[in-house]
Input
Amino acid sequence: MRILAIESSCDETAAAVIEDGRKILSNIIDSQVETHALYGGVVPEIASRGHMQAVVRVTEAALREAECTRDDIDAVAATCAPGLIGAVLVGANFGKALALSLGRPFLPVHHIRGHIAANYLAYPELEPPFLTLVASGGHSLLVMVRGYTEFEIIGGTRDDAAGEAFDKTARVLGVGYPGGPKIDALAQKGDPKKYKLPQSHVKDAPLDFSFSGLKTAVINLAHNAGQKGEEIDRASLAASFQAAVVETLVPRLGLAVRQTGAKHLVCAGGVAANSALRAALQNLAEAERCKLYLPPLALCGDNAAMIGAQAYYEYLAGNLGASGQNAYATAEITENLCRKRG
Output
């Protein structure tokens, strides 16, 4: 089965053709990073306009790279939640219109389910159940994946996501957008123990975490130094911040492993590309005697291949969207988007 998938939840317009949920025939990404870097972050209105300008072009490119025609496509999928609502609507409405014109099923996909499914493309042997750490720009979650379309949230952030904290810290350090890769590169030159930064602990919820205090601590540290005319060791602050994020995420995943008895661990989302986090997860997996699955760097960020992979399993589960399928700025990973209303 060949699925043409569209992703437009933030600042990448992407299209891909995926076969049977596991094989990438094409994966095209048109990034707006250079545009939004001028503003230090994503501007929703500009992102939406960029998607409108690019979506036809990337879809045609995906079909060419896959050596497919529209008639070779068995279904069309698109991200329908969560994300910047104007941006999500561009891809969702384009996908619905294309599916209708071709007389093919339309498959609405949850963006975070897609991030998890990126691992299916890299690891043919991976099957549920498994325990997942989701760490992205807008989400930080601990999820038990009990089936391809069955998810249970067992922990998550109470406020900011890890990726958001990376972007805010990058802005404070003046390294630009996107923050994740820039902080990672800068941290390689610094001392992760030079600055003492807070790690959150949520009372009565040991699997939950928070990043707002960490983000505020970095801002205050930089502000106070500026007021005193002191120079900050930017590389060491980046390294200390990165270490604090890792030390917030990984121990909770370890606790979840012990509580659930999970033997297979998956990491998903843009922050999964962080070198310190990947190394810490490898150490955790060895200590807990678990099998670890890390997505290749090319599949950590937003892309349409992951949407097509998850769409295949949504199709098998009968989760087909109608012509009136809506898009949503927010939605839990546990929600069936075909049945979501409002």
